[in-house]
Amino acid sequence: MYRLEKLLNADEKVLWSGKPVRKAFILPVLVSIPFGFIFLGFAIFWMGAAASSGAPNEFSLFGLLFVLIGIGIAFGPFLFQLLRYRNTEYMITDKRIVTQTGAIGLDTRFVDFEKVQEVYVQIGVLDRLFGTGSVYAMTAGFSGFAPRGGYGYGGYGGFGFNRPSLAALKEPYEVQKLLQEAIEQSKKTKTEL
Description:
The protein is of the alpha+beta class. It is built from 6 helices and 9 strands; from the N terminus they run H-E-H-H-H-E-E-E-E-H-E-E-E-E-H.
């Protein structure tokens, strides 16, 4: 959390910080492995058939491209998500939500509490297996159509209404409660001024 703390304002106080649960964050993308191996199997079969039929060597070499694509389908998403996990951090301060993620570069988002309209928890099928869940904050002015997982997480696919997301958390209801209380306290403080 050291990277995020360096980005805070001097008057900000960290209320919570954390990372996603590694297994819950990474393992859902393993669903691509069987598809990659199926693609890889067809490519190897095609290369073997081309070689045994007496076709020119270029046909076999052309199949090598599809072997590489199959390897990419099988292992690419896993490696990408592993790199994203390493760079994914979440923080709630007394003023805003801060999320950071990225496989190679970093995407850091700052969402002030006054923009948050709704906070909710989502626990999917895989979350039940891992004992995790995700906390989502809907913001003012958000159109409601974004890749599932929002800022911090690739998710399991599909589309949803989330901005930002604190995904694959061990205690999502505790984090949601803390976030909701921080938002209420922030509103109360602003009305007193």
